[in-house]
Amino acid sequence: MRFVPPSRLRGRFDPTALISLAGGAVLLLLLGILLGKHRIFPYPLVDHAEMALRALADASLHRSNRVQTGLWEKAWTDERGVTRYDPDRAFGDYTLYTSGHAQKAFLIDMQGKVIHEWHMPFSEVDREGLRSDARPDFTFYRDAHLYPNGDLLIIYVAEGITPWGLGMAKIDRDSNLLWSFIEPVHHDMSVGDDGRIYTLTHRIVNELPAAFDRVVPPVIDDYVVVLSPDGRKLRELSLLHALGRSDLPGFVETLQHKRRFAKGDILHTNTVEVLPPSLAEHFPFARAGNVLVSFRQLGIIAIVDLEAGKMTWAVRGPWKRQHDPDFLPNGHMLLFDNEGWLGSGGRSRVIEFEPLSRAILWQYTGTRQRPMFSEGRSRQQRLPNGDTLITVSAQGRLVEVTPEGRIAWEFVNPIRESYEGTEYIPVVGAGYRYKAEELPFLAAGHPSTHEGSIE
């Protein structure tokens, strides 16, 4: 850069103008502080703009290559497909999973062969373009629920936008659209014995319950939504308002304390599971029809009474950034603890615990040779033979372990993509195990049964 003497700059600008400009900037700064402190219009609009700009900035960081999104992680192994299989121990016949590389769901056999696949892009579901901000290569199936006849429920989420939940759809075994629900559905779903669908939505709000007097809006509120079997909304409950109506002062204080770390996403609810009548007697602090929810930001799991519109029970435990608490028939709970383990094997673990005492009765942490870690997502399924199928999302991995901690079956996502000399693997969003008799649509000779490829 060429040096310009001060004498050459004379006449190009008036020093008094620069002083006036600086003074104006100071006045604007002071005005902004005043508006923010007293929540005077248009401060809420500025906050919304700030959240939108932050989301846009996040998206721009990943615009050059899809592996830079949270749907891909650095590959931790060169192995692909089924890497471990003990046919004398492993349970079941088929595994359903979703992958961050495509808007597809795959059903594989115990050797990793694709038996059936479903493919329905969100662009074909959202035909009116209500969520045109979602990039197709940044969108994937966060969760899926498979019916015996081959119909599939799908939750769509996207990276780089806020809110990131896009919607839900039901497709048939041939990937034809049956219905859609275009609201910001995210993370999880639970199908009740009566066919009703329980799921989560979220949106940015400015009005908060009076109990949260130290939480400065706008924030993201999560909602439990109940849908009919054909996708009609039957009920919606704000979880912030459900908490505000509850007699859980320790929960409220925890939220007040954590508010400054969450960047507006103060709950980050990642699980909803309805308590069926068959298990209600094993959980004295809940009743049939209540839902179990998980708040990642707070390290809390809670019971929500949808009829009363409030939370009735909550607990914190020796876990961190947890996902997918499940009711078990023995009155215990099963949970994926993403970052709460400090011992050998890996930072993540699956734990079975007694919900009232929080005593850990069983855990799996991985091994030194095959550690287990996933900063986000992940889930588990207790199988009828006592084994546990674990979805280790960030590792792109599904692993079935015995109660003794032995691997009975393992599958590693076979997809890879190279970027700047590094190999990446897509995350696995959901993984579920089935016996053949649970999926009659796969009966031999059925016209919809077909083999696919994991591409």
Strand and helix map with partners:
Elements: H1 6-9, H2 15-38, H3 43-61, E1 72-74, E2 81-85, E3 94-99, E4 104-109, E5 114-119, H4 122-125, E6 139-146, E7 152-158, E8 165-171, E9 177-181, E10 185-191, E11 197-205, E12 219-227, E13 233-238, H5 239-244, H6 249-258, E14 269-274, H7 277-280, E15 291-295, E16 300-305, E17 310-316, E18 323-327, E19 333-337, E20 349-353, E21 360-364, E22 379-382, E23 388-392, E24 397-401, E25 407-412, E26 417-419, E27 422-426, E28 428-434
Antiparallel strand pairs: 1-27, 2-25, 3-4, 3-28, 4-5, 6-7, 7-8, 8-9, 10-11, 11-12, 12-13, 14-15, 15-16, 16-17, 18-19, 19-20, 20-21, 22-23, 23-24, 24-25, 26-27
Provide an overview of this structure.
The chain has 455 residues and is an alpha+beta fold. The protein has two domains: 22-61, no CATH class; 73-442, TolB, C-terminal domain (Neuraminidase). The chain contains seven helices and 28 strands. It has helices spanning 6-9, 15-38, 43-61, 122-125, 239-244, 249-258, 277-280, and strands at residues 72-74, 81-85, 94-99, 104-109, 114-119, 139-146, 152-158, 165-171, 177-181, 185-191, 197-205, 219-227, 233-238, 269-274, 291-295, 300-305, 310-316, 323-327, 333-337, 349-353, 360-364, 379-382, 388-392, 397-401, 407-412, 417-419, 422-426, 428-434. The strands form seven sheets. A five-stranded antiparallel sheet has the order 2-25-24-23-22, with no helix packed on it. β6 and β7 (152-158) form a beta hairpin. The longest helix has 24 residues, at 15-38. It is globular, with a radius of gyration of 25 Å. The termini are far apart. Mean pLDDT is 88; it is low at 1-13.
